[in-house]
User: Which sequence fits this backbone?
């Protein structure tokens, strides 16, 4: 019970300190001369070149300690890293359970290590005003691999979304080559065969499939869903929203980019959103979708699936293997699979941000004589193909092998995510590779190198979908931000409530116009005006 | 039952009135209910810690383990770091409790003397910290600048005096008859002699209580260690287990194996059992003083 209140205290204190620090650091002149910071740095560092510090150096780092593979000093990762780069990392070990709290505290107290990884885009915002965090966008010229990937994978649009009001970004995000889709629905394929239906490719076919299941089993709701927290229908509406060309569930936010009109419109009032709601309402009305889907616990939904009271449920790769298959193991006939995300009116598309958690850097690092070397080191380890492969797979011949076609296999005695169950040593626990602090993002090929054959099939289908560009950002000024938040939350809550009422038939869809009018009464237009004004200002600047 | 057995021996005693018997029956029922209500959750936790995760999930576990399983215990206890951290907990608890008892006793004894000048101010200083605190970051900066980070003192010193315990002890010392100390002083004892030879032996009860209070709170605490320890081999077991729960229930990390999921369901109960049992074992030993302390106070009125 004391923890949340302490966390609040920490956040408050951090905020307060941020204010004071901001007041002191306002007049510092911008200094772009790096002549005094090049100790240990390579003069000819470039893409494809191994970074090696010209003299042994060490950097302090905050380390997020995962209980599944607790940090060990004797990991091959550390020694090999020092071998290759000449850099030693001095870790301040923080348990994963309270990483964010300690991070705010240490930054607030001015005691933060130089390298602060595992920071999700958005989490850096509270520290920006304090001046304790380096605006890394000013220094990406020191990072050839980073720049190369941004250019090659056209990530500039994604990066724009993390720019602060001053147009700079303060976190080096993890970057994916392509949008990674994981969530879809899982379907009992044996029931599918029983009712003589193919695997549905579109949401209309999903409807037909559920209809056929219902005809055969009139007493069940064929689709009973999970993940209603914190947003009812979190996963399902998110997936459906994308298919219908809008946002829903976990991915819901009030502003939706309209590329034709070049402005933001209100998500919950768009025609696409209405179509999605209408579709779900049809499923509920015809007894195809369990109305309890939006209130029951995950365990209840799993129980229904396990006992044959439902055949379809939202899924990702993990839940399929870790939840549904073991749950269904008592029924030898039952087979279940995650189907490629069904296509909706928006066509064969996928959307999403290709950014991941990444690295923040303490402002004081800028004054270090090793600053340039540090940036090069970070660039190599987190952004070069070689560094990413090293962090994920380890040392060729020792922990893994790679054949001519680029296929990765674990060494005979090493196991990782059950890819090689006969291995006696664990890639993460015993060697320190595949560590969430260092290994994420990167080339699709590398990302998928640990996927199962089944998941690769899913990804192959998803790879054919066209990735839509990221909507442009609309960074608010402080006063606007405050005002926008005041409008934003009640609107979001209201859309959420009404979405459920419409879907469950508690409110008739003929009342849609009245609902939009109610949204107007809750400052929908004022909110949009703020968003569009901020966008226009941003567009004019860039 | 006791009443029945003693009846012939004490014939003079009036037969318990009807009202009294009703009272006793009700009393027994209510107290039994209290025992059940307080014991049940604990037994349930123990049962859960020994059960299969599926049985727990489907709510079959009540008083007895279902699908007997010690996998989680094995998993938790097979890690060398678990034992390192467990040792830390013991060390931190012992050191911090010892420091706390010495400091609290000394402070409380001083405050219990009405003739002490500035006593009000000293009490005020202590009580002030009950209501106001410098906040987390100043605390952190202080401990860091004092160089206490990554040592047992970061845990022991900032929490050495609990104001509540201090006031309880002060009240106890005040209730000791002044005459005893006056007699001791006539016999030639100085202040420290009086504290050591007269007051402390008479205060075993309250000291035992304080030891218990402090020990339990240090045993359970994780926050200071989490703040001031930078290496995992310095963490107490509470931090270790807290992280284990977070990892097991987070569930979204790619690579969570089925082994870990097995852990997820009953790890909380295993954790609770592992941390509660040792401190529970201390209880009976201290309890003796605790009870005699209560009666002692009752007799003296």
Assistant:
């Amino acid at each position: 019970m004391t923890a949340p209140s302490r966390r609040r205290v920490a956040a408050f204190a951090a905020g307060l300190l941020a204010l004071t620090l901001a007041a002191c650091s306002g007049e510092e002149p911008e200094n772009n001369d790096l002549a005094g910071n090049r100790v240990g740095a390579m003069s000819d560092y470039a893409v494809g070149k191994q970074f090696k510090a010209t003299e042994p150096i060490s950097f302090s780092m905050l380390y997020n300690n995962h209980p599944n593979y607790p940090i060990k000093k004797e990991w091959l990762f550390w020694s090999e890293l020092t071998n290759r780069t000449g850099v030693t990392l001095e870790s301040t070990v923080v348990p994963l359970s309270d990483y964010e709290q300690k991070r705010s505290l240490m930054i607030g107290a001015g005691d933060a290590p130089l390298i602060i990884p595992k920071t999700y885009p958005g989490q850096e915002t509270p520290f920006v005003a304090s001046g304790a965090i380096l605006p890394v966008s000013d220094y990406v010229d020191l990072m050839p691999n980073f720049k190369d990937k941004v250019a090659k994978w056209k990530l500039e649009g994604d990066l724009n979304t993390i720019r602060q009001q001053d147009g700079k970004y303060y976190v080096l995000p993890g970057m994916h080559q392509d949008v990674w889709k994981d969530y879809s629905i899982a379907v009992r394929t044996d029931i599918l065969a029983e009712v003589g239906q193919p695997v549905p490719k579109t949401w209309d076919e999903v409807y037909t499939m559920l209809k056929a299941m219902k005809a055969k089993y009139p007493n069940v709701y064929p689709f009973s869903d999970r993940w209603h927290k914190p947003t009812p229908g979190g996963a399902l509406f998110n997936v459906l929203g994308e298919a219908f060309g809008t946002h829903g569930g976990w991915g819901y936010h009030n502003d939706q980019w309209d590329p034709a009109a070049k402005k933001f419109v209100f998500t919950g009032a768009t025609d696409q959103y209405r179509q999605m709601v209408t579709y779900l309402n049809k499923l509920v009305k015809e007894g195809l979708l369990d109305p309890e889907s939006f209130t029951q616990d995950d365990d209840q939904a799993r129980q229904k699936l396990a006992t044959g009271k439902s055949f379809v449920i939202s899924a990702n790769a993990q839940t399929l293997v870790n939840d549904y298959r073991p749950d269904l193991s008592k029924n030898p006939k039952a087979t279940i699979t995650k189907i490629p995300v069904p296509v909706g009116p928006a066509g064969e598309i996928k959307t999403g941000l290709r950014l991941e958690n990444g690295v923040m850097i303490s402002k004081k690092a800028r004054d270090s004589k090793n600053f340039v070397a540090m940036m090069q080191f970070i660039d190599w380890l987190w952004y070069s193909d070689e560094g990413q492969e090293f962090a994920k797979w380890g040392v060729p011949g020792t922990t893994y092998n790679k054949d001519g076609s680029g296929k990765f296999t674990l060494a005979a005695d090493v196991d990782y995510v059950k890819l090689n169950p006969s291995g006696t040593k664990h890639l993460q626990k015993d060697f320190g590779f595949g560590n969430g602090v260092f290994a994420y993002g990167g080339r699709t090929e590398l990302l998928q190198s640990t996927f199962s054959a089944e998941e690769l099939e899913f990804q192959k289908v998803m790879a054919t979908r066209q990735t839509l560009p990221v909507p442009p950002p609309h960074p608010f000024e402080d006063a606007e931000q405050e005002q926008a938040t005041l409008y934003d939350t009640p609107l979001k809550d209201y859309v959420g409530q009404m979405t459920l009422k419409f879907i469950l038939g508690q409110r008739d869809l003929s009342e849609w116009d009245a609902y939009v009018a109610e949204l107007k009464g809750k400052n929908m237009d004022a909110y949009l005006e703020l968003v569009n004004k901020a966008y226009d200002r941003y567009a004019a600047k860039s | 039952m006791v009443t029945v057995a003693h009846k012939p021996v004490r014939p003079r005693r009036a037969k318990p009135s009807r009202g009294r018997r009703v009272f006793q029956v009700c009393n027994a029922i209510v107290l039994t209910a209290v025992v059940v209500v307080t014991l049940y959750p604990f037994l349930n936790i123990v049962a859960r810690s020994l059960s299969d995760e599926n049985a727990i999930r489907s709510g079959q576990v009540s008083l007895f383990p279902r699908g007997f399983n010690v996998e989680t215990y094995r998993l938790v206890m097979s890690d060398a770091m678990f034992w390192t951290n467990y040792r830390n907990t013991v060390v931190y608890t012992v050191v911090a409790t010892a420091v706390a008892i010495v400091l609290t006793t000394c402070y409380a004894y001083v405050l219990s003397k009405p003739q002490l000048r500035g006593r009000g101010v000293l009490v005020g200083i202590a009580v002030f910290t009950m209501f106001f605190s410098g906040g987390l970051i100043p605390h952190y900066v202080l401990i860091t600048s004092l160089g206490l980070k990554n040592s047992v003192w970061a845990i022991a010193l900032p929490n050495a005096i609990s104001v509540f315990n201090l006031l309880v002890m002060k009240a106890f010392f005040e209730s000791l008859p002044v005459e005893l100390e006056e007699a001791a002083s006539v016999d030639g004892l100085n202040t420290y002699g009086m504290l050591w030879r007269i007051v402390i032996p008479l205060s075993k009860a309250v000291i035992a209580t304080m030891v218990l209070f402090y020990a339990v709170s240090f045993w359970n605490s994780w926050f200071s260690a989490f703040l001031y320890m930078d290496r995992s081999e310095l963490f107490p077991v509470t931090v270790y287990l807290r992280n284990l729960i977070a990892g097991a229930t987070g569930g979204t990390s790619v690579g969570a194996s089925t082994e870990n999921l097995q852990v997820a369901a009953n790890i909380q109960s295993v954790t609770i059992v592992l941390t509660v049992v040792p401190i529970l074992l201390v209880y009976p030993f201290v309890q003796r003083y605790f009870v005699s302390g209560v009666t002692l106070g009752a007799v003296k009125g």
Residues 15-29 of chain A have pLDDT under 50 and may be disordered. Chain A touches chain B at residues 2-3, 6, 9-10, 13-14, 17, 65-68, 70-71, 92-98, 102, 105-106, 108-111, 299, 303, 318, 322, 326, 416-418, 428, 434, 436, 450 (CB under 8 Å). Residues 75 and 431 of chain A are 5 Å apart (CA to CA). The radius of gyration of chain A is 25 Å.
